[in-house]
Write a structure and sequence with these properties.
By secondary structure, the chain is an alpha/beta fold. It has a single domain, classed as 3-Layer(aba) Sandwich (Rossmann fold), CATH 3.40.50. Helices cover 46% and strands 23% of the residues. Helix 1 crosses helix 6, helix 2 crosses helix 3 and helix 6 runs antiparallel to helix 7.
Length: 243
């Protein structure tokens, strides 16, 4: 079976160590990436009552950061998260409960490729480190576009590759050898962190990703590389239909 078709089971196996390894392997920089990504949304002059969808919510780090920044802006909000991994969401639900956000953040075990929401349902759609795991990238992005309200905002945070050749060489060395070894050591899973390496290497980023978003129908598509280009924020808007 294609790895991406069994992605829920893969993340179920590493759920208990996922957050720990995320912070360890990124030297805690992943927390800053999420803050920057959410800030790129908050700066879009969102209305006072915001309905959000977090695709591939996982252990809810992005959803919690989104809730924190929306609250700082005195917004009223609801965040719905979807994910294929039940075990990841169990951890996310406990974190949400500890933050006192259980009335604002909810979880659904659903596929991003066929979401059970009506057209034009959400003001904001987010996805952090999830789109590269879609078995059909175009279909997943089309679903995000479908459920966004006209004028709604999309934010994707995803791994990418540095343009600088020297940094790219070290990055590739780290992703190919060091990261899978540490991942296997702590997670006790022989395949998950090798999959992470392959999924990043085989994915699109930068202008190519922007072109795909434009083809899907998004406008005002921008991208911002972070930390030498090893991760990238993508922002886009669903056009308001003119009559």
């Amino acid at each position: 079976m294609n790895e991406k078709q069994n992605i829920g089971a893969l993340f179920d196996r590493i759920a208990l160590k996922y957050d720990f390894l995320n912070h360890l392997l990124s030297l805690n920089v992943d927390r800053w990436w999420r803050k920057k990504a959410v800030k790129s949304l908050i700066n879009k002059n969102l209305q006072s009552d915001v309905e959000c969808l977090d695709v591939a919510i996982g252990t809810a780090d992005l959803a919690i950061e989104l809730a924190r920044q929306l609250d700082m802006q005195h917004k009223t909000f609801i965040i719905t998260g979807v994910d294929l991994s039940v075990e990841m969401m169990h951890i996310g639900q406990e974190k949400v409960r500890k933050c006192g956000l259980q009335n604002q953040i909810s979880f659904m075990n659903e596929s991003a490729l066929e979401m059970p929401f009506k057209d034009n349902s959400f003001d904001v759609v987010t996805c952090a480190y999830g789109v590269r795991n879609f078995s059909d990238l175009n279909l997943g992005l089309k679903e995000m576009h479908r459920v966004l309200k006209p004028g709604g905002q999309l934010m994707i945070l995803e791994f990418s590759y540095p343009k600088n050749k020297l940094i790219a060489w070290f990055y590739d060395l780290y992703f190919t050898h060091i990261l899978p070894t540490i991942g296997r050591l702590f997670s006790k899973d022989k395949t998950a962190y090798s999959y992470l390496n392959r999924s990043v290497k085989n994915f699109v980023w930068g202008k190519e990703m922007c072109n795909i978003l434009k083809t899907i129908g998004f406008s005002q598509v921008t991208y911002k590389p972070l930390t030498f280009g090893i991760t990238t924020i993508y922002n886009a808007t669903k056009d308001v239909v003119k009559v």
